[in-house]
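CORE FACILITY INTAKE
Project code: CF-77B
Contact: R.S. (postdoc)
Sample description: multi-component assembly, two entities in total
Requested service: structural model of the whole complex
Turnaround: standard
Below are the sequence entries exactly as provided by the requester. Do not edit them.
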Amino acid sequence: MKLVLETRNINKHFYKPKDFHVLKDISFGIQPGEFTSIVGKSGCGKSTLLYILSTMDTEYTGELYLNDQLITGKSHEELSRIRNRHIGFVFQFHYLLAEFSVLENVMLPAKKLAEKSLKEIEHDAHEKLKMLHIGHLAQQRASRISGGEKQRVAIARALINNPTILMGDEPTGNLDSHNSENVFNIFRNLAQEKGLSLLVVTHDNDFAKRTDRIIEMEDGNILK
Amino acid sequence: MTNWSVILKIARTHLTTKMKSTVTAALGVTFGIGAYITMAGFMTGLNNLLDGLTLNRTPHVRLYNEIAPSKKQPVSLYTDFKGAFNVVTSIKPKETQIKIHNALPILKYLKTNDDVKGATPQLQAQIFYLSGSIELGGILIGADIMEEARLSNINDYIVTGSTEALKNNANGILLGAGLADKMSLSVGDRIQVATVSGSIFPLKIVGIYQSGLAEIDNSQSYVNLKTAQRILGQPENYITDIHIKLFDIEAAPAMAKRWERQFDIQAIDIKEANAQFETGSSIRNLITYAVSLTLLIVAGFGIYNILNMLIYEKMKDIAILKATGFSGRDVSLIFISQAVIIGLLGGILGLMVGFGLSVLIDNTPFETEALPTIKTYPINYNPLYYAIGIGFAILSTFIAGYLPANKAKNMDPIKIIRGT
């Protein structure tokens, strides 16, 4: 079956302060519509792996494929475009541009992509916000809304270009249980209803247990 | 592909939310450019004034006959003495006329030359000014006064009367201000001039001119060329000087050399005659640029600092932008465009401030004996300085913005995201 994301023998070293083999021969694939979580202890390399998968980190050996296309070795300029077009990213800290309105934050990646007219982008952004039940916040300043709302805005921003895969680095790590539940349900729906692939790094075992697939990591290896 | 509308939108948002530092940075540029425009305008205005004092009065090339001993004595032409060591003592110049030979054909030739803006004949003669019992030595210049007025700025120095009045009066004289003072004469009075040979000629004062150089004002006067020839009892082709204005002053030395050979005459060019003025002007220009450059560099450092701080403040934003698909180049363009916007706004404001100060200086009273027609400080409104000003504002802010922007470009988003 066609894989959305595939890694082959990915190895990574940290050279500072001393040589440390952080990822060892990582090979796995993610199927379309699959909701996957990566779990493991602190320092097992799960975040490092996610940054490599997100194409932001390019200092590794091995091969990374996105939609059966080799990503490894492409220029930063091309990688930026791939990130923009195919990958949505949600961080632990909700990272919005504080001076911009919620709507502008959501529209930004689409404006960069510039595949649609400004009107369509605005319409799409409103759609995404409504889907996440925060349509009423559109004109608010991003710095003026609560943590749970911010995370939902970040998800809307990640979805604006209809990416192939959504990646999350502890997306619920900084949220209370109610908001965590909320975010989980959003992810669940995206996977089930929209067929979006999801890859989430998490500490939260309850969260991980309810995903389709758990990748457990230890000392730079995938356990299962 | 660069998406300018998004980049500029982000740049603008950064600038407007940090209004205080934006304004501070822009005012730094404004100050630098404003000072540059004012200084350049004032300094070059002053330069032009000082140059005008002498240079505009000096012809680009002056042709005249000089009485000098022959360079080649007859003995050296005599082949029998060739190779011998000849000593000629007590060499004296040959008696010759002071007038230019073939002056009228030369003048006619020069007037048809494409490089020549104009050529005027002059007759300069030593005379005595007589008024009552007073007798003063001086120089009388016979000139084609309307042509003179067209080619030099003699009109600026005529305190009372006019060049037309002289032209219309065959017995008129434009008297030097110093002479008029000494002899207590004014326009309408009569004065007599005596030539070296003794003949006396009455003239009517139609104007007073004050060049600002005392030695000229105390001795020199203008009459019509024909009047001068009549006073001296000489025919119409008696011309002692030909003054030439060229279209391009830079060509003066070469032209002078050419004509010297062509007409077998002495020719002196403006550069040779006024070398020190050139030096003075260029040094004043150098000072203007050095001071303005310093001001702009200081402003540039201000911008550099502010942008540098902004980039540390916006580290998270940079990480998000990079994570959501903005390339390093996009990010650096965001910051560079902020710097250039600051430069452009500050620069335009600086041009306006500079223009305002120039107008102020231009209207400040400045009266001096030396310059009778000048009533306020001189200012040069050359658009070139405004173009240089805005160009420099953009260039310096671009450089000041480039370094921090480059830092932002190379920031690793992972390190920023992990660091928190």
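Facility notes:
- The mean pLDDT of chain B is 84.
- The interface with chain A takes residues 1, 3, 5-6, 9-10, 13-14, 17, 316-317, 319-330, 413-414, 417-418, 420 of chain B (CB under 8 Å).
Invoice: internal transfer
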